[in-house]
Amino acid sequence: MPSTSFLMKTFLAKQETVQPKWYLIDAEGEVLGRIAVKAANIIRGRHKASYTPSVDTGDFVVVINAEKAVVTGKKEEQNEYMFFSGFVGGESYRSLQQQRERHPEFIIEHAVKGMLPKNRIARKMLTKLRVFAGPAHTHEAQNPVKVSVR
């Protein structure tokens, strides 16, 4: 039987040992999908060597200038968001252009949510996303590190 001294152990992160950091993404002039991928990966902790799928090892993400994110092609007019009031006939639709005028933060929140897994941990991870329509945000005290999307 071979010696077990050469075998390596798999590292699994624990919730108590995770030290979350804060990152800042400026969405001005950036493509919506690229912003969402970068934010989702940071929120999940995929950029860390200690990434563990069953533990929330991610960091906080602050996205500013959400109203200035761009989309390619005809998505501005063709993409629709559906809302349902819960009553019969209570469906309503808004194009991406209308949604940008009313609630521009929702566009990025919705895109990031779609890129996270559909489970309890992901619902908790989504609370680490903070999106602001303009250039000002309320998290200067956390000293977020600016990250480029490209």
Structure description:
This protein is an alpha/beta fold and 150 residues long. It has a domain at 20-76 and 104-135: Ribosomal Protein L13p, Chain: A (Alpha-Beta Complex). It is built from five helices and six strands. The protein has helices at residues 32-44, 75-78, 96-102, 104-114, 120-125, and strands spanning 22-26, 60-64, 80-84, 91-95, 129-131, 145-147. The strands form two sheets. The protein has a four-stranded parallel β-sheet, with helices on one face. Strand 3 (80-84) and strand 4 form a beta hairpin. Helix 1 (32-44) packs across helix 4 (104-114) and helix 3 (96-102) crosses helix 4 (104-114). It is globular, with a radius of gyration of 19 Å. The termini are far apart. The model has no long low-confidence stretch (mean pLDDT 93).
Total beta strands: 6
CATH architecture of the domain at 20-76 and 104-135: Alpha-Beta Complex
Could you name the CATH homologous superfamily of the domain at 20-76 and 104-135? Ribosomal protein L13
Report Rg. 19 Å
Highest CATH level, the class of the domain at 20-76 and 104-135: Alpha Beta
The largest sheet has its strands arranged as 5-2-1-6
Mean pLDDT: 93
Strand % is: 15-25%
**Distance N terminus to C terminus?**
50 Å
Unreliable stretches, pLDDT < 50, 5 or more residues? none
Q: Count of helical segments?
A: 5
Task: Indicate the overall shape.
Answer: globular
Can you summarize the main beta sheet?
Answer: 4 strands, parallel
Series of secondary-structure elements, N-terminal to C-terminal? EHEHEEHHHEE
Question: What class, by secondary structure content?
Answer: alpha/beta
Helix content: 25-40%
Stated plainly, the CATH topology of the domain at 20-76 and 104-135 is called Ribosomal Protein L13p, Chain: A
